[in-house]
Design brief:
The complex is a heterodimer of chains A (257) and B (290). Chain A has 257 residues and is of the alpha/beta class. Helix content of chain A is 32%, strand content 25%. In chain A, helix 3 (98-104) packs across helix 4. Chain A is globular, with a radius of gyration of 18 Å. The N and C termini of chain A lie far apart (43 Å). Chain B has helices spanning 2-32, 39-55, 61-89, 94-117, 140-162, 164-174, 176-181, 186-208, 219-233, 238-259, 261-278, and strands spanning 130-133, 136-139. Chain B starts with a helix and ends in a 12-residue tail after the last helix. Chain B is mainly alpha-helical and 290 residues long. Chain B has eleven helices and two strands. Chain B has one domain (2-278): ABC transporter involved in vitamin B12 uptake, BtuC. In chain B, 76% of the residues lie in helices and 3% in strands. The chains are: A alpha/beta (257), B mainly alpha (290).
């Protein structure tokens, strides 16, 4: 019998007020797996992640994490169960230092453990080490995103949930960020990433789903989806081709949206 | 010249007392974006509790200081849990609703205090002599109250900036979602912030009643004082609040001496308005905010 899924969504509908922005979504993610949710702005990607993190109430369906129903749990309780969350817009603490921010990611651990894990993060994201005393508000976008991810990792999660990590970043920085993430996967971490930047996300993740108008319309291995003409036409052309280095010249044309 | 130096020292000492009054309000605003209009009534309540501890239980006013703070900590926790959290968690108009709720609360606290202590002015005599520093005489009671207020403010500031729990208050103030995704229970953080802010009001009250007499209706005036300070300093800004507290202390003492106490009350607001016209973001603006 295969091990139970780490994260499982069954018929999840959610939205703001009474209007659902997500319609009966089914989704499963196993230990150590990577899944990209791609789709246009407003397609419901962020809503899906907010539902998983308990930021909005479900209008229907249920979400299980490590076999446990998440209903009624606040965001912090879900984080404590082992879901590391780097929300949309990063949600850093602009006036706090990088070191303090990272330590807060493991706020419930003793000081020695917090410091040890913080140093582990500096090993994973060496760029952050010299910035340890800098205020998060003064960092570049790429550095801020690294802090947001490192903060989410401080609690030693089994699942990392990333909402649009590439927003506002230069292609080179995006490539660097996903390269750091790829290294983390060796430890058995599962990653769920929502991205408008389909190229970067499809290159990083093993599996992917396409989210359109609150429905998951396509799903499959990321490589297959990347080659799917519907995906290529709708999502991949939207971004600078230069970061899609694996694509043959002219293979992923800068098609209009 | 001697007079000016004496007045300056008095003003700076009063600044310490004002700082403690304002820091509690600032903490609550910084973490929760709630302007607690009952803050002055909490200060008066703390003072009247200290009065009873002194008059009925024969307690030293300095011993009444932590006890009043502790009682107000409990009251603040109860108010946050039973009143503010349910109404602010409900939705988008949280700030307006909390403003109205604390406005109502200020009447409840003031009238409850009225039932217990009546309407007469109460005071707690404490260290009525003077400390002689060369040719300058400083009232010993003011010196003790000011030092106690400075010490309490400094301790809380250190706690906020060096401990992980203190930092989680800052974190929640800067991004509640960010804090929650760290596994921080932001509801508990808000409870702690409101309770601590109320405790600072209670402690400040226990000190101020040794300096000026209180009646139950003094609260509104003190709320305006504390609010003036944090508006001057920049809402949520500690360094700014300290500067503003000293400025207010100095202004008040000098205006009282040279213009009389009726004019002094007005001068404070003239300074307040002048500062806001020149620097609408407060003395220090956003720098150093929670």
């Amino acid at each position: 019998m295969p091990p139970p899924d780490l994260l499982r969504l069954e018929g999840v509908s959610a939205g703001y007020g009474r209007v659902p922005a997500l319609h009966a979504v089914d989704l499963a993610l196993g230990h150590g797996e990577t899944l990209a949710i791609i789709g246009a702005n407003g397609a419901g990607k962020t809503t899906l992640l907010r539902a998983i993190m308990g930021q909005i109430p479900l209008l229907g369906g249920q979400i299980r994490f490590a076999g446990r129903r998440l209903d009624g749990l606040d965001t912090h309780a879900r984080a404590r169960l082992g879901i590391g969350y780097a929300p949309e817009g990063r949600q850093l603490f602009p006036m706090l230092s990088v070191a303090d921010t990272l330590e807060l990611g493991a706020a419930r651990e003793p000081a020695a453990v917090r410091r040890e894990r913080r140093d582990e993060m500096f090993a994973i994201f060496p760029k952050l080490r010299p910035l340890r005393d800098a205020s998060c508000g003064l960092l570049s976008g790429g550095e801020q995103q690294m802090v947001a991810i490192a903060r989410a990792l401080m609690g030693r999660p089994a699942l990392l949930v990333l909402d649009e990590p590439s927003t506002g970043l230069a292609p080179r920085v995006i490539a660097e960020l996903y390269a750091s993430l790829a290294h983390l996967l060796d430890s058995g971490l599962a990653v769920l990433v929502a991205e408008q930047n389909a190229r970067a996300a499809l290159r990083f993740a093993r599996n992917a789903v396409v989210c359109e108008d609150g429905h998951l319309t396509l799903r499959g291995p990321a490589k297959t989806l990347a080659a799917d003409p519907r995906v290529a036409a709708a999502y991949i052309g939207m971004h600078d081709a230069s970061i899609w280095s694996a694509a043959p010249a002219g293979g992923a044309p800068d098609a209009p949206i | 010249m001697l007079t000016v130096i004496t007045l300056a020292i008095l003003g700076l000492l009063w600044g310490g007392v004002y700082l403690l009054m304002a820091t509690g309000l600032n903490l609550i605003y910084g973490v929760m974006k709630v302007v607690n209009l009952a803050h002055g009534d909490f200060i008066v309540l703390g003072g009247l509790l200290a009065f009873s501890l002194f008059a009925e239980a024969g307690l030293n006013p300095l011993a009444a200081f932590p006890i009043a703070a502790l009682i107000l900590f409990g009251i603040g926790a109860g108010v946050q849990f039973g009143l503010l959290e349910p109404i602010t968690a409900a939705g988008s108009e949280g700030e307006l609703r909390s403003l109205l709720a604390t406005f109502g609360l200020s009447y409840v606290v003031a009238n409850a205090s009225f039932l217990v202590w009546g309407s007469q002015f109460q005071s707690v005599p404490f260290l009525e002599g003077a400390v002689q520093a060369g040719p300058i005489a400083i009232p010993a009671g003011l010196l003790a109250a000011s030092l106690a207020a400075f010490a309490a403010t400094l301790l809380i500031h250190l706690w906020l900036t060096t401990t992980i729990t203190g930092k989680s208050l800052h974190a929640t103030a800067q991004s509640a979602l960010g804090a929650a995704s760290c596994g921080i229970d932001v509801r508990r953080v808000r409870l702690l912030a409101f309770a601590l802010g109320s405790a600072m009001a209670g402690g400040a009250g226990a000190l101020v009643i040794t300096l000026i007499p209180f009646q139950t209706s003094t609260g509104g005036e003190l709320t305006v004082h504390a609010f003036t300070l944090i508006a001057l300093g920049g809402l949520g800004n500690y360094a700014g609040a300290w500067l503003a507290a000293e400025l207010l202390g100095l202004t008040e003492v000098f205006a009282q001496f040279y213009l009389g106490s009726n004019a002094a009350a007005a001068v404070i607001y003239v300074v307040f308005i002048a500062v806001l016209v020149v620097r609408p973001q407060g003395l220090l603006g956003q720098a150093g905010r929670v």
